[in-house]
Amino acid sequence: MLEITPLYASALAILFLVLTVAVILRRGATKVSLQCGDDRSLIQRVRRHGNFTETVPLALLLLAMLELNGLTAGWVHTAGGMLLLGRVLHPLGIDTERAAHPLRIIGMGLTILMIAGSALYLLFSAIG
């Protein structure tokens, strides 16, 4: 039974809802139902939400596999913490004026490290 992954999945689900509502509210304010028009705020919100949905499902699947494969709780929390922190920081750093915002770089870096590290650990565990 999974005991650690649900904590991170729940926290990330709340963040997903926050990002989703931000897009909905901006779409309502701008009356733009598809695409983003020329509204920079809507573009930022859509990409914050989009990047989250592009990375989090795979990362949560990997986190669950780590836990189910018996990785120690400390390491599962480390991976989950990296993912959660990365996903909190990344949207704060998305800025249409500054592509290389430090929070964006750190957030994506943590996410990529979590996914890559988890994938490699699981791969090497599987092949012995």
Explain this structure to me?
The protein is mainly alpha-helical. It has a single domain (5-127), classed as Four Helix Bundle (Hemerythrin (Met), subunit A) (Up-down Bundle), CATH 1.20.120. It has helices spanning 5-30, 40-68, 73-93, 102-127. α1 (5-30) runs parallel beside α3 and α2 packs antiparallel against α3. The protein is elongated and about 55 Å long. The two termini are 24 Å apart. The mean pLDDT is 96.
Entry summary:
This protein has 128 residues and is mainly alpha-helical. The chain has four helices and no strands. It has a single domain, classed as Four Helix Bundle (Hemerythrin (Met), subunit A).
Low-confidence stretches: none
Distance separating the two termini: 24 Å
Number of domains: 1
Main sheet: strands, sense, barrel? none
Q: Identify the CATH class.
A: Mainly Alpha
Q: Kindly report the average pLDDT value.
A: 96
Approximately how much helix is present in the residues? over 70%
Order of helices and strands: HHHH
Our count of helices gives 4
Rg for CA atoms: 16 Å
Extended strand count: 0
Secondary-structure topology with pairs:
Layout: H1 5-30, H2 40-68, H3 73-93, H4 102-127
Helix pairs in contact: 1-2, 1-3, 2-3, 2-4, 3-4
Keywords:
Four Helix Bundle (Hemerythrin (Met), subunit A); mainly alpha; 128 residues; elongated
